[in-house]
Recover the amino acids of this structure.
């Protein structure tokens, strides 16, 4: 198991995962899954009676399984039920955030991710992350990792689809990124 902290964050080609993917093909050839661990436990915001307030639970998190492997999708759904992870129905087959540098490497990226009202603002701080939410998501990821262990890369790719184009690859996204 290798942990990589990188800063590609929504700017493809700007950070560490691109560099890692280009310079460590030997490691990627032995990699079954890359786990996305960002934006995973912020407090759900609510607007009631024109007032903005925080709730007692976390934001829903979308599931990303870039190859839509039935085995991996099922592990995420089961983990969400088992550990109380709030999620919308559906799974996204696109690379998000810090794992975009692995697109085109043949490595499947998976994870939960959410974006709150505070996203990328000075309010996007540890104050909006709950210890209970971090515990739930940590236990869920550990359970998924246990479920992946013992499966070959071929088994994790059984029933998979070809990954569509990058989530951030559109004229609008390119314009937005040009402003950064």
């Amino acid at each position: 198991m290798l942990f990589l902290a990188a800063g590609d964050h929504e700017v493809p080609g700007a950070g560490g995962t691109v560099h890692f993917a280009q310079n460590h093909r030997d490691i990627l050839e032995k990699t079954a899954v890359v786990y996305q661990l960002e934006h995973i436990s912020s407090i759900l915001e609510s607007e009631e009676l024109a007032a903005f307030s925080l709730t007692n639970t976390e934001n829903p998190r979308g599931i990303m399984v870039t190859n839509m492997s039935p085995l991996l999708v099922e592990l995420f759904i089961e983990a969400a039920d088992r550990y109380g992870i709030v999620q919308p129905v559906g799974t996204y087959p696109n690379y998000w955030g810090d794992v975009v540098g692995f697109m085109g490497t043949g490595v499947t990226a998976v994870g939960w991710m959410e974006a709150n009202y505070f996203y990328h603002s000075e309010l996007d701080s540890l104050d909006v992350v709950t210890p209970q939410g971090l515990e739930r998501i940590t236990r869920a990821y550990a359970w998924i990792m246990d479920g992946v262990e013992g499966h070959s890369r071929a088994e994790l790719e059984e029933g998979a689809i070809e990954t569509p184009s990058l989530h951030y690859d559109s004229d609008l996204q390119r314009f937005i990124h040009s402003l950064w």
